[in-house]
Structure formats: C-alpha cells, structure tokens
Amino acid sequence: MDFFTIIGLAAATCTTVSFLPQAVKVIRTKDTRSLSLPMYIIFTIGVLLWLTYGILVRDIPVIAANLVTSIFSIVILGSIIFYRYT
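RESULT FIELD:
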C-alpha cells in the first residue's frame, strides 16, 4: 500500500467515523428535530455520487469512506423522514 492510499484511508476513516455519533444518537433518542431534512437529502445524494465515482475509478479509500458514510446518512435521513412524518 502506497503513502497516498494510506493518507486517503486515514482521511476516509476520520470523515466516516464523524457521522457515527449522530447516527447512534438518532437511533437511541429518535429525536431528529434539530436536523435539517434538505441538508441530509443533498448530503446523501452527494455521498452516493462519490461512491459511484469511487467505484468507476476504482479508488479504495473513496469507495470505503462513501460506502460506510452512505449507510450512516441513509439511516439518519430515513429516521428524519420516519420520525417527523409518521
């Protein structure tokens, strides 16, 4: 593994793990009032596009980060929609 890949994986880990506390909080409390629905819609689309890009160019750090982040983002987005509108 080269130096650039290691830097990419470290960055991917930091940005991906940063969403874990929010996802856990939303799952535990079911409180999404302070979260912006438009922001999470746009963010989730962006993450899915980055994931697509990573797959197309076969960039492991981009794929790994955006695969996990998309899961967290979809959980949070789904929770916002479910808990606010049901």
